Amino acid sequence: MRRVLVGIKRVIDYNVRVRVRPDGSGVVTDGVKMSINPFDEIALEEALRIKERGEADEVVVISLGTDDTQQQLRTALAMGADRAILVRTDATVEPPVVARVMQKLVERENPIIVILGKQAIDDDCNQVGQMLAALWDRPQATSASKIEIKGQTARVTREVDAGLETVEVDLPAVFTTDLRLNQPRYVKLPDIMKAKKKPLDVTDLAALGVEATQRLKVLRYEPPPQRQKGIMVKDAAELVAALRQKGLV
Amino acid sequence: MNRILIVAEHEAGKLSAAVAKCVSCAASIPDAEITIAVLAADGAAVAQAVAAIAGVARVLLVDHPANEPALAAVLAPQVARLAAGHSHVFGPSTTFGKDLMPRVAALLDAAQVSDVMTVESAQRFRRPVYAGNAIVTVEAVGGRQIVATVRVASYQAAAAGGSAKVEAVKLDVLLPTHTRFVSVTAARNDRPDLQTASRVVSGGRALGSAENFALIQRLADRIGAAIGASRAAVDAGYAPNELQVGQTGKIIAPELYIAIGISGAIQHLTGIKDARTIVAINKDAEAPIFEIADYGLVGDLFSLIPELEKHL
Ligand SMILES: Cc1cc2nc3c(=O)[nH]c(=O)nc-3n(C[C@H](O)[C@H](O)[C@H](O)COP(=O)(O)OP(=O)(O)OC[C@H]3O[C@@H](n4cnc5c(N)ncnc54)[C@H](O)[C@@H]3O)c2cc1C
Ligand SMILES: Nc1ncnc2c1ncn2[C@@H]1O[C@H](COP(=O)(O)O)[C@@H](O)[C@H]1O
């Protein structure tokens, strides 16, 4: 069985204007729309395409989170994943812990590929994929914008500061997705119904033998410094004059 | 004493400008002793360049043919070995550092702080989350080593004037062969570099085509600026990916940023918040970009760009 594992994190939807709670204890989440991390949607889409091309047989989605995370896993099943695993936890889990959990599931599921997002848009850490690859002692190709599977190897194009880098890796390997890898499909209504019958296993950290150790204590949240709203100029001449005066051009 | 190891980013024998910024960040840790690791195929020139950064106490040079081009899977076990005896391991928050440092952190079973923007103490740091909509103060607990990436837009480069000793180091580490570099396609040009330029002109979806995007290039050339783009402009193929500015592109801090035909989505704004002066040109007076612009000009870019050029 050629299996692909995909990480799915439940996050505040990217369209929500996130606000810090007045007491600095976190951000406002009451009544806020939650979604699949956009990079994880791209990861799932890529896994589905790999399967549709016949290069894999099964796509399994994994999430660590509260019970509510079942909603995002159901959406992932409706998109086309074959089954889901929820590692239920009410604690905030840091990337090293997520990576350990993934490693445990990798040992159990023996995938040829693990695809994660390059970053979760809540913590913006950009860590889990690389950490998992290190713990598993396997290749990583982060910020992928193209993935080609060639038997026991894969060729991956990565978005890097200089431009586009291509690497070749032996499978199994860990990939993380960038925005331009693909355009995720929309979920169709009948698929939502079908997804209700797909398996969603619930387990927890203890069952996997992973401790939710805290490495970083969050002391406080603050809003970012606000920039002052500036002035409107009436035409190009006035703009150039203003920039000249400040010595900017 | 806090012993900080910084991993030097370099390419084709040239040191990345991000490294001197990492030194500034490391130097803001109390009682810091800064060591720089240069992992290269033939890194003598890079090692000399880092040795000349003020505040650097030591340079460790690891020459190995496998070290260039840089691959995280190959570098990580070497960096992890060098990290012994260090309290902190820093790298820049560039695609190089983002790829490498978490792999190092996992090998060390360390804590990792991504995108450090302020150092409050040896264990306490501030960093942005939620696309910069919140800043958190985090404290490393449990006495582990601390791995961090430095948000380079938050720091000035450390000055020159150092004269650190360079030590060649041989590491007895098994290097993996499961990851192989194939190629890199970089649009080489003589324009200023987006991440270090003092002026940047960026274009958005409104440009409408790759041909029209040349208007942005022309204006940028006129004022000696680097070129940037919004995600929408990159997705549509008007500009290459390495020009994307924002949460998931480049975070920049130029003296002057000119956004043309860009609406000002939060993911874009987080990449330019540290710019000294922001100029926005947009035909929609309600565009969110005007909320943070120092100078706003409402109008059609296709007539305003030529007019700007006339006055420049
Ligand atoms: C996970 C995630 C990460 C993202 N990361 C980034 C990122 O790093 N960087 C980024 O930029 N975006 C990012 N985005 C996308 C972001 O949300 C916006 O979609 C994007 O920035 C919009 O680009 P734009 O402003 O060019 O296009 P639009 O929002 O379509 O704006 C075009 C603007 O041009 C104006 N206009 C149109 N015609 C003219 C004309 N003739 N003259 C003058 N003005 C005109 C319009 O009024 C409009 O304001 C991300 C999104 C997600 C979900
Ligand atoms: N709680 C989680 N559950 C499932 N996947 C996760 C979780 N946290 C992180 N990931 C995966 O790791 C990627 C990178 O996350 P991060 O390192 O936190 O930015 C995400 O895009 C997900 O694919």
Question: What spatial order of strands do you see in the largest sheet of chain B?
Answer: 7-11-6-1-4-5-12
Distance between the termini of chain B: 53 Å
Order of helices and strands of chain A: EEEHEHEHEHEEEEHEHEEH
Mean pLDDT of chain B: 96
Helix content of chain B: 25-40%
Distance between the termini of chain A: 62 Å
Task: Report the sheet-strand fraction of chain B.
Answer: 25-35%
Q: How much of the residues of chain A is beta strand, in percent?
A: 25-35%
Backbone structural class of chain A:
alpha/beta
Classified by CATH, the class of the largest domain in chain B is Alpha Beta
Helix residue percentage of chain A: 25-40%
Number of domains of chain A: 1
CATH topology descriptor of chain A: Rossmann fold
- Largest interface by residue count? A-B, 84 and 89 residues
Q: Could you characterize the architecture of this molecule?
A:
Chain A has a single domain, classed as HUPs (Rossmann fold, 3-Layer(aba) Sandwich), CATH 3.40.50. Chain A is built from seven helices and 13 strands. Chain A has helices at 38-52, 70-79, 95-109, 128-136, 189-195, 205-208, 236-245, and strands at residues 3-7, 10-12, 34-36, 58-65, 83-88, 113-117, 140-150, 153-160, 163-170, 173-177, 200-204, 216-222, 231-232. In chain A, strands 9-8-7-10-6-1-4-5-11 form a nine-stranded mixed sheet, with helices on both faces. A two-stranded antiparallel ribbon of chain A has the order 2-3. In chain A, helix 2 crosses helix 5 (189-195) and helix 3 crosses helix 4 (128-136). The mean pLDDT of chain A is 97. By secondary structure, chain B is α/β, with parallel strands linked by helices. Chain B has two domains: 2-168, HUPs (Rossmann fold, 3-Layer(aba) Sandwich); 199-311, TPP-binding domain (Rossmann fold), CATH 3.40.50.1220. Chain B is built from nine helices and 18 strands. In chain B, strand 8 and strand 9 (124-129) form a beta hairpin. In chain B, helix 3 packs across helix 4. In chain B, 58% of the residues are buried. The model of chain B has no long low-confidence stretch (mean pLDDT 96). Adenosine monophosphate binds at residues 7-9, 37, 39-40, 43, 62-65, 93, 95, 98, 116-117, 119-120, 123, 125-129 of chain A.
